[in-house]
Here is the input.
Amino acid sequence: MPQPQPPAALPASMRAFVRFLLPDGSARELSHGDVIGRLASAELPLDDERLSEAHAMVRLRVRSDRHGHLELVLYEGDVVEDRN
Here is the structure.
């Protein structure tokens, strides 16, 4: 999957990420544009029939004052749903 570019307001020296702790005890770090789902090519592939192939994407939102936060955006059909 093509990687979206992080918002321009984020300095190149910074890396925003979220760490997921998995049931097997391992941890995975995901950042802006990473996909979670059943696809083998997803950055966090999960073998769970309740999930869609491309279930969610990590997105970084940066405000004009250079503060921001990571969001988990769920895909609903052909549309990305922002539940904030």
Q: What stands out?
A: The mean pLDDT is 80. The two ends are 25 Å apart (CA to CA). DSSP finds no helices and seven strands in the chain. Residues 34 and 56 are 9 Å apart (CA to CA).
